[in-house]
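Sequence and structure are kept together here, with a separate record for every protein. An example record follows, reproduced without changes.
>
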Amino acid sequence: QVQLVESGGGLVQPGGSLRLSCAASGFTFSSYAMRWYHQNSGKERELVAGISSAGDITYADAVKGRFTISRDNAKNTVNLQMNSLQPGDTAVYYCNARYRIVFNYWGKGTLVTVSS
């Protein structure tokens, strides 16, 4: 059974940091591209950062220089280090695993709130 379980969300003040983790199971993790998306109520889910099976990394322009994505294939985890958080980063963050087009899995999300 495929599972993606996010953790690490919470309330943080502007300028603060959080580290999100996604624990994966039930599929060959190392073969999948892993991505973090976020979603605010009433808006579409948006890509935040992605890392391919080969380690190629992409970021949304809004988070470049502030967020860092990494993966540990030995532990089947993908992390998102978020620094210099801003109120606009407030959202539910989702972990996504994708292989080709057919295999596409989502976690249930973790809420990040940036507020003073």
Notes: The chain is about 0% helix and 55% strand.
